[in-house]
Every structure is written in C-alpha cells, then in structure tokens.
Design a protein that fits this description.
288 residues, alpha+beta, 10% strand, 4-stranded antiparallel beta sheet, 63% helix
C-alpha cells in the first residue's frame, strides 16, 4: 500500500512538471508568435489572437465540457489525472504570464520559436503521458468523435483536428508561413513526446532460422546469458520442419549475437525488429 501511494505521488509530480514545461513552451515561444501546434492550446493561441481571451481560460472552457462528455460517453476512462493535468496546465500558463508580464517573448524568430516551443512542449506532454495522464484536448475529442464515426480511428480524428487548428492559425494572421511553422512545431512536439515516453531503452528481437538451432540456442544461453524460445516452423516450399529461435537482447548485444550466429551457421536466416519496451527477467521489472 505504501509503495502504491509513493508511486501515485511520483506520477502526480511528473504530471505537474510536465504541465509546467508545456506552459513554458506555450507562453514564451509559441503564443507570442501565434504558432499553434494543434490541440486545445493551439485553439487557445488562435482565440487569443482573434478576440483576446487568455489561453488558460480557453483551455479550461473547452476541456471541462470535453472531460464531462468523456466521462459520460466513455465511462470515466480518463479519470482524475486528466482533470488534474487540465487545471494545472491552465494554472501554470496564468502563473508564467503574471510573473513575466509583457516581457515573456524570448525570440521573434518564427523558426526558433517553432523548434524550441515544440521541444519544450513535447517534453512536457511526454512527461504527462509517461505519468499516466493526459491534458484532454484533441486526444479526448478524438475518442469522443470516434464514438459517432467508428470508421475513422482516434489517431486519424486527432490528426484532422490538429491540422484544422494549424490551418486556422495561418488564416487568422493571414500568413501561410504561420501554418507551415505550426506544422513544424507539431511534428517536433509529437517526436519529442514519443522520445520521452519510449526513451532510448529499446531492445532488439531476433528471429533466427538455422539448421543448427540447438547449438546456436546453447551458445546464446552461455555467452550472452539471454533466454531463447524455440518456435516450431515449417518451410512452405520444402515442407521441412525447422525451429525458429526467438531471442530479445539489448542494444549492446546486437553485434555480438549476429557474430555468434554466423560463426556457427553462415547460411542462417535472421530477422531483427526493434522493441521499445521489454518487461520481465533481465530487462525492466514489471510494476505492480
């Protein structure tokens, strides 16, 4: 019970830090240059430019009804963390605006604003996602719309909504370059968020087909200290029964495994795939 409470506390700390980073990216880089990288915050940038309503207010006004609709239609799947992240994001945006006053423009260079705004905001979103939260926005809206348009996936609906926001940003300032810079910021944001969520701790899965599978399997066990699973396979053309070895290794062992296999069988057939997360003995422990 104590470990669970500690884990929950760490997750909420992660969401808090993530929301703070998102607010920094928005207030100091994206909003001053009307760069709208999709989502509700992007809508907030456009609305502020059009009618002067602050981003933090727009974020709450749009996300609160979305959250209520999500709870009603989706059964509360997004939970307390989404509500907490939504409020914290608006709170940090208002805090940084008050603290910086009129001097919160770091750079007027659109490319620098798009790059740094996307990186910082993406890091924040990644932290929120990694902590099990979400800031609502287009991911929640996409899930709700998917209820009514099941032929379109949530990812596609999110992309459509984000692109609409990006295009609108360019129309508002009557400058197509703003839309182009917004697309750059959106791309960087997504890549950075993925990097934070998945990290660099990827592994490689090897599928090995050889006439010397027993010898290769024993070598992997003894020299690399990795487990090997033997899958039964059959050549479609020859009809011959063969073992297919499955082995997962970390990045440092990739070259060693290839060398080990080809030292035993130069004609071995190897397939290698990237795995972003491996849970279990020898890799990441399963969190309870």
């Amino acid at each position: 019970m104590k470990n669970k409470k500690y884990s929950t506390f760490i997750e909420y700390v992660g969401i808090t830090v993530g929301c703070a980073l998102m607010a920094v990216g928005i207030v100091f880089f994206l909003q001053p240059n009307t760069i709208a990288p999709g989502g509700v915050t992007g809508i907030g940038v456009v609305v502020q430019k059009l009618i002067g309503v602050p981003i933090d207010v727009t974020n709450l006004v749009i996300n609160i009804p979305l959250f209520i609709s999500g709870v009603i239609l989706l059964g509360g799947a997004f939970g307390m963390k989404t509500a907490y992240a939504t409020v914290m994001l608006s709170g940090f945006i208002r805090f940084f605006i008050i603290m910086s006053g009129d001097s919160h423009v770091v750079t007027n260079d659109l490319l620098l604003s798009a790059i740094y705004g996307g990186v910082i905001m993406g890091a924040g979103i990644g932290l929120v996602f990694r902590s099990g939260g979400t800031t609502g926005g287009t991911d929640l809206a996409g899930a709700i719309l998917n209820k009514y348009f099941p032929s379109l996936s949530i990812a596609k609906l999110m992309m459509i909504l984000d692109l609409m926001v990006v295009v609108t940003a360019g129309l508002v300032v009557k400058n197509v370059e703003i839309s182009l810079y917004s697309i750059i910021a959106l791309y960087i944001l997504v890549q950075m968020a993925d990097f934070i969520v998945e990290g660099l701790s990827y592994s490689k899965a090897f599928y090995i087909i050889s006439n010397h599978s027993d010898k290769i399997g024993k070598k992997i066990n003894s020299e690399l200290d990795r487990g090997v699973t033997s899958l039964q396979g059959r050549g479609f053309y020859t009809g011959a029964e063969k073992d297919v070895l499955l082995c997962v290794v970390n990045r440092a062992q990739v070259a060693k495994l290839k060398k080990l296999v080809y030292e035993i069988d130069e004609k071995a057939f190897i397939m290698v795939t990237t795995i972003h997360e491996v849970l279990g003995k020898g890799f990441k422990e399963v969190k309870k």
